[in-house]
């Protein structure tokens, strides 16, 4: 039997190790990015440093926009607004009970051009929805009860459904929110500076500072590595245990085989001796026959002592015969097992 538990633990350990290594590598990359303390310094930095290689920087400021979105339910003003609507209902299952379930009805997102402003200058952020670490604030969460008519409700009930209502959730990135952005800084032809996803490198939009991001990645890297070591040790233990059990099982079968072959090798000589001296004495021959062990064909440990009815075969012990439904020799169904006793 394949030790799937041990292999699974080892594969999980390898995956966790790779995750920890990736988190540690991201933390080292964040340590190497250029930190911009004031946004007014970024333009001069781009003029000097961006002529050879792409400039990956980290900046901080508050969210702003010239055309913010006014949220319908919460009344907040934001630059990214996500609206979802879920239909909640009770569903009749095969067991005869009602279980609660939901289905997505609407998923919509709006985004306007926005920037970070620290009081010295502003820098536009592009493609923030695809960045790592962006968490939108839940502006409102409203549950509208189902107002279906009696006829519609009856039709739903006949189909095994009971409509409860619609849950609408509004998530928003409000203006004035302090953010830290890590990405590639570029300047267009008219002098507008923006931060975007680099071709190769980190792209973060987070409420945490750059130091908090580095500390968090380092913490996860350590936890992944500790978990990897734990899964490795447990997986090796399971594999070693399976290997030990396999070796002991093979040794037990080899020992039983050796005993059976040794008894079979003695049998011919004993039969010849009995035929020359005591042919007329049946009891002596029976005692000599018992020198060859009548082992159960299932476990090869106990002597067979059970008779199958109605086929009459006797080839297993009582312990093994209790788990059988058909005779191992003729495959006939066993209706009764009768135990035999040796005198």
Automatic annotation (TrEMBL):
Transmembrane stretches, start-end: none
Compartments (UniProt record): Plastid, Chloroplast outer membrane
Any single biological process term in GO: protein ubiquitination
Region Disordered, annotated ranges: 265-286
Catalytic activity: S-ubiquitinyl-[E2 ubiquitin-conjugating enzyme]-L-cysteine + [acceptor protein]-L-lysine = [E2 ubiquitin-conjugating enzyme]-L-cysteine + N(6)-ubiquitinyl-[acceptor protein]-L-lysine
Membrane topology: Multi-pass membrane protein
PANTHER family: E3 UBIQUITIN-PROTEIN LIGASE SP1-RELATED, PTHR47568
Name under which the protein is recorded: RING-type E3 ubiquitin transferase
């Amino acid at each position: 039997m394949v030790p799937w538990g041990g292999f699974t633990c080892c594969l999980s350990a390898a995956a966790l190790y790779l995750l920890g290594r990736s988190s540690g590598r991201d933390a080292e990359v964040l340590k190497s990015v250029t930190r911009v303390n004031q946004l007014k310094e970024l333009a001069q930095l781009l003029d000097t440093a961006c002529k050879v290689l792409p400039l990956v920087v980290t900046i901080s400021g508050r969210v702003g926009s010239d055309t913010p979105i006014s949220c319908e339910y919460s009344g907040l003003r934001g630059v990214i607004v996500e609206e979802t609507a879920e239909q909640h209902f009770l569903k009749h299952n095969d067991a005869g009970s009602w279980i609660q379930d939901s289905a997505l009805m609407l998923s919509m997102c709006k985004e306007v051009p926005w920037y970070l402003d620290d009081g010295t200058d502003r820098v536009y952020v592009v493609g923030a929805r695809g960045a790592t670490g962006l968490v939108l604030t839940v502006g409102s969460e409203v549950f509208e009860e189902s107002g279906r008519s009696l006829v519609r409700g009856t039709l739903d009930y006949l189909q095994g459904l009971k409509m409860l209502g619609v849950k609408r959730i509004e998530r928003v990135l409000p203006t004035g929110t302090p953010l830290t952005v890590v990405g590639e800084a570029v300047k267009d032809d008219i002098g507008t500076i923006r931060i975007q996803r680099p071709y190769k490198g980190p792209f973060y939009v987070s409420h945490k500072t750059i130091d908090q991001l580095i500390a968090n990645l380092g913490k996860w890297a350590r936890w992944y590595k500790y978990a990897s070591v734990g899964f490795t040790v447990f997986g090796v233990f399971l594999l070693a245990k399976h290997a030990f059990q396999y070796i002991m099982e093979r040794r037990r079968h080899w020992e039983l085989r050796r005993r059976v072959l040794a008894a079979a090798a003695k049998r011919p000589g004993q039969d010849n001796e009995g035929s020359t001296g005591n042919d007329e004495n049946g009891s002596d021959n029976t005692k000599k026959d018992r020198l060859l062990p009548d082992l159960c064909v299932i476990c090869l440990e106990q002597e067979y002592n059970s008779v199958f009815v109605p086929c009459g075969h006797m080839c297993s012990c009582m312990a093994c015969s209790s788990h059988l439904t058909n005779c191992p020799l003729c495959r006939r169904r066993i209706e009764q097992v009768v135990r035999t006793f040796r005198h």
